Amino acid sequence: MNWEGILAPYKQVVEELKVKLKGMRAQFEHESRHSPIEFITARVKPVESIIEKAEKKQIPLNRIQEIQDIAGVRVVCQFVDDIYTVVNMLRERKDLTIIEEKDYVSEKKASGYRSFHMIIEYPVETIHGMKKVLAEIQIRTLAMNFWATNEHSLNYKYKGRIPEEIKARLKIAAEAAFRLDEEMSKIRKEVQEAQRIFHRK
Ligand code: 0O2
């Protein structure tokens, strides 16, 4: 398979979305307003993982465009409320179509995972014309990101079969991350005021 050719539009999408989201962040900063976006990461799913996911979801390789997260962008926020600010801003945009929303922030997954997922359809211009590509935007807090990154590493280490004892600890850690987000939300105004003073200096 010509993976480089297949993945080229996805690379383009990831780059474009990164530029646009960073642009949103810059506009907030320019207006000296709290940015709901702390940082952005993005990736094109590695070929090995695409093949694995296609097998898991029983999608033949000639239909891999049905896999929703080949292009993936992650928006990391300071506060839980920021997640919904970003979600609402994305809902308003005219340059993408929202296909599906999965709110694992208010309804965590069994693993303890929290994050807001948006599956979008994004039109990308190629030299062969316009192509609509699916992409996944994950929106989560710094605490949710810390947890998910560590859990992801453990899943990789244990090939998806994390021992029960560690799984239980991860659930406790997920609760602690949730409480941390709750506590930070309570002093949000104080934190933001401090950050405004800090930025002015
Ligand atoms: P990677 O390596 O990040 O690309 P579903 O069939 O709906 O259960 P699906 O279609 O994979 O599963 O959608 P879902 O649940 O929205 O998950 C998509 C992505 O969200 C995953 O991609 C992960 O990045 C992240 N995710 C979902 N659940 C968890 C979790 O329990 N822990 C962590 N750390 N991340 C999670 P991939 O392809 O699994 O992995």
From TrEMBL:
Domain RelA/SpoT, chain residue ranges per copy: 42-162
Alphabetical list of InterPro entries matching this protein: GTP_Pyrophosphokinase, NT_sf, RelA_SpoT
SUPFAM superfamilies documented for this protein: Nucleotidyltransferase (SSF81301)
Pathway connected to this protein: Purine metabolism; ppGpp biosynthesis; ppGpp from GTP: step 1/2
Name of the protein: GTP pyrophosphokinase family protein
Organism this protein belongs to: Paracerasibacillus soli
